[in-house]
Amino acid sequence: MSANDPLEQASTDPVVVSGINAETALLTDVRAARHEGFDRVVFEFRNDVPGYDVRYIARPVTADGSGAEVEVTGSDVLQIRMESALDADLTKETAPRTYTGPTRFDPDTPQLAELVRIGGFEGVLTWVAGTRERAAFRVETLDSPPRLVIDLRTA
Prior knowledge:
By secondary structure, the protein is an all-beta fold. The chain has strands spanning 15-17, 25-35, 38-45, 51-57, 61-62, 69-70, 76-83, 85-86, 104-105, 112-121, 124-131, 137-142, 147-153. It is globular and about 45 Å long.
C-alpha cells in the first residue's frame, strides 16, 4: 500500500482488548458509511467503550444464548463481540432499550454486505458484519461520545 494508506496498520488478524469499563457500556447507535479506501462501522455508547474481540469467524453463524443459526449475507463474516456491553439498561426497572435501531441492515457500502445483531446475553453484545471479501480491518476507539470503530479496506 502507499505511504498515505488510511489503513496502514490493518490486517485480518483478530483484535482483542479487555474491557476496563466500571459499568456496562450501553449501546445507543450503530451506523456504517463509505470512506475513501475503506468502509467504517461505528458502535456508539452512552457511557463507556467496552472490551472487544473483532475477528473473522467460520459459518454457520449462531445466535448467542440460543445457538440458532443466523443467515448473514456476504462471502465472509467479521464478528464484533463487546463485553461488558448491552443494548438495554438493566439497572432500570423496565430495562428500556438504549439502542432502538435496526438489528439487521444493509449499509449499502462497497465492502459491507450486511450488519446483524446476533446476541445480547449475560453482558456480551455481539454483532456480525457480512463482508463481500475477507478484507483487512483496523479497530480503534473514540471519545465524546464513546465509540468502537471498525474500518474495512475497500481498495
